[in-house]
Design a protein that fits this description.
It is built from 15 helices and four strands. The longest helix is centred in the N-terminal third of the chain and has 15 residues. It starts with 7 loop residues before the first helix and ends with a strand. Helix 2 packs across helix 3, helix 4 runs antiparallel to helix 7 and helix 9 packs across helix 10. The protein has 284 residues and is mainly alpha-helical. The strands form two sheets. The protein has a two-stranded antiparallel ribbon. It has a two-stranded antiparallel sheet with strand order 2-3.
């Protein structure tokens, strides 16, 4: 790869984060011994860890680009922006383009995108340049505080905020309260009848400190056997009954996850990764 040798340490750290190798996973097998559901998933998908976006900034941009679009359409737009505005690097003799950095995206007209998305992408770029989307900062914040800050960004709702924190910043211990497909998979795996989101969150508490990782395993199984949980429904709790979960996610979660699932479903985010890498990476 082209670049200065002085960047080597930063490159190594970035690759480790993207492949979730910066998280100590030595306690994950013990979780599988305590929880039979997790244990079965670990046997089926040994060593599978999340593959992340290159940054929370890029995850946020993907969330904006993908709104109300099919995943293939969003991927084409993302690639077009990379070709037009991004840096070019040469890897093994092949020229590749990177998604434009915040300073390359901010203030650009971006022909072909709706004006509302242009304005939202500009706000995301500004937030990134201010340090608001710094990976270490987001992971150091209390989870609720990080999600609250992210939802203040234009166009970022609860579903996208959780995606940015888990798949952008690489937070290993997040339960997605706005992802209905995962909720259905949890309900089926633990034989729960009409569970509330709060009840599902209680189940996920047993996965700490690897809730994000267990969610990946459940999504992977769902994608491998899509008919197993097809049509499963999980009620969204009413705000007055759900405490802080309901106030933040109660009425919005159903609309957001239904509208954005085709372009932003956590289990379908493959465009930002190398060819052949889908839901995660197997690693010893």
């Amino acid at each position: 790869m082209t670049g200065e040798i002085g960047d080597q340490d930063r490159v190594v750290a970035q690759v480790e984060r993207i492949l979730s190798l910066d998280v100590d996973g030595r306690g994950f097998p013990e979780l599988g011994r305590r929880d039979p559901v997790v244990g079965e998933l670990l046997q089926r998908y040994p060593g599978l860890r999340p593959v992340l976006f290159c940054s929370p900034y890029e995850a946020a941009c993907w969330s904006i680009i993908g709104q109300r679009l099919r995943i293939t359409q969003a991927a084409a737009i993302k690639q077009r922006l990379a070709d037009q505005l991004g840096d070019r690097v040469t890897v093994a003799g092949q020229q590749l383009t990177a998604f434009p950095a915040p300073q390359q995206l901010r203030g650009r007209a971006l022909p072909g995108l709706p004006q509302v998305k242009v304005e939202r992408l500009d706000a995301i770029a500004t937030a990134a340049l201010s340090g608001q989307l710094d990976t270490a900062r987001l992971r150091d914040l209390d989870t609720d505080q990080a999600l609250e800050e992210l939802t203040r960004l234009p166009g970022i709702g609860p579903f996208s905020a959780e995606l940015i924190l888990a798949r952008g910043a690489g937070h290993p211990d997040l339960f997605p309260t706005a992802e209905r497909r995962l909720h259905a998979e949890i309900a089926g795996a633990y034989r729960l009848t009409e569970p509330t989101v709060a009840r599902l969150a209680d189940v996920a508490d047993g996965w700490r400190p690897y809730r994000t990782w267990v969610g990946l395993l459940l999504r992977t199984r769902r994608e491998a056997t899509p008919t197993r949980s097809a049509g499963a429904a999980v009620p969204i709790v009413e705000p007055q009954r759900a405490g802080h979960l309901g106030r933040r996610y109660g009425s919005y979660a159903h609309r957001c996850s239904t509208r954005l699932s085709r372009a932003s479903d956590w289990g379908l985010l493959v465009e930002c990764h190398p060819p052949g890498v889908t839901l995660g990476r197997r690693c010893c």
